[in-house]
Design brief:
Structural class: mainly alpha
Low-confidence stretches: none
Distance between the termini: 31 Å
Helix content: over 70%
Order of helices and strands: HHHHHHHHHHHHHH
Radius of gyration: 20 Å
Oligomer: single chain
Strand content: under 5%
Shape: globular
Length: 332
């Protein structure tokens, strides 16, 4: 057991080293490559040169936002999969992404919202409202993973219909939403980071605090009760964590798919089902995938760039099919 813990700890440190390397690449690589010594100069010895401005004003906020959003999506995905006992569950299963998108399109069309900073508050409000609605439809205190998933699917379909209807009847909303909805880090700034970090921090604390109860829930409701787990309280806390993490991440840069699905699923191949290790690994490796995809999007179409939401969708689709086939084969 001690050797296993040491191995997992060493693996987590290695993952953190990979994350640092990807963050450095995110700052250095783009339409104009910047040598690492100039990156260091721009970060710690800012003098106002063109390279310093690119590093400090453009790429640093983008990298920091990718870091916190990636970690949030990874934590939300791991918590979602543990809560529903479904290894292929996505954070959007509770309707959080659809609620955020519906609120943003409503704000644009009916309230004249134009600032990306204002999108954050609408998206967070929409995500929170939908989580409460899904939990109420799912049975509140008698909610089960299956009921929550079904309620989330139904509400998601309804909200997607609303968003599509508004965009089709309002060309202004359609034009503005098509940039936000694809999922991108390109318009990142530190003001957006500061707006979402408090919500992400609270969500992360709730997720890590629920690690042990989620381990018990994985054994089944009856066993969890026998071990003293408060099922209703745990589900409410985890749902709140998913809402804060996924809602704030979606608010900051639009819906980015497959990060919260792929990374936790693959992490369990390293850590096993223990959420006390799954959550930290997911929080470190998810930003690796997100920032790596962002760098790849810049390289593929240089000097233009491919939005990170498109890259993760292209990469994630085949991976999801492979995971689904492997899970089905295992069941057979």
């Amino acid at each position: 057991m001690a050797r296993t813990q040491v191995t997992r700890g060493a693996g987590l440190l290695a993952a953190a080293a990979v994350l640092l390397a990807v963050m450095a690449a995110s700052i250095a690589v783009g339409a104009k490559d910047i040598p690492l010594d100039q990156v260091w100069h721009g970060l710690f010895h800012y003098s106002g040169t063109d390279d310093d401005v690119v590093v400090r004003e453009l790429r640093l906020p983008r990298t920091v936002l990718g870091l916190v959003v990636g970690a949030a999506l990874g934590l939300a995905g791991a918590a979602m999969q543990a809560l529903t006992r479904n290894p292929l569950a996505d954070p959007g299963l509770l309707g959080v992404n659809a609620g955020a998108a519906a609120a943003v399109v409503t704000g644009i069309s009916f309230f004249g919202v134009t600032s990306p900073g204002a999108y954050v508050w609408f998206a967070l409000a929409g995500a929170a409202a939908v989580s409460v609605l899904v939990y109420a439809i799912g049975g509140s205190r008698s909610a089960t993973p299956v009921r929550l998933a079904l309620a989330g699917t139904a509400v998601t379909a309804l909200l997607q219909g609303w968003s599509s209807a508004v965009q089709l009847t309002d060309s202004v909303a359609l034009d503005r939403m098509r940039f936000w909805q694809v999922g991108s880090l390109a318009s990142a700034d530190m003001a957006t980071v500061r707006r979402v970090v408090p919500f992400l921090a609270v969500g992360a604390v709730l997720a890590f605090a629920a690690a042990r109860p989620l381990n018990a829930i994985a054994l089944g409701d009856d066993t969890a009760r026998a071990l003293g787990t408060r099922l209703t309280g745990t589900r409410v806390a985890v749902t709140a964590a998913i809402t804060l993490l996924c809602g704030a991440a979606t608010a900051a840069c639009g819906p980015i798919v497959f990060i919260g699905l792929m990374v936790p699923h693959m992490v369990r191949g390293i850590t096993g089902p223990d959420m006390r290790w799954t959550l930290p690994y997911a929080a470190v490796l998810s930003p690796v995938l997100l920032l790596g995809s962002d760098v790849l999007g810049r390289l593929l179409t240089r000097p233009a760039e491919l939005q990170v939401g498109i890259v993760t969708a292209i990469v994630g689709g085949p991976v999801f099919i492979a995971l689904a086939r492997r899970s089905r084969t295992a069941e057979l």
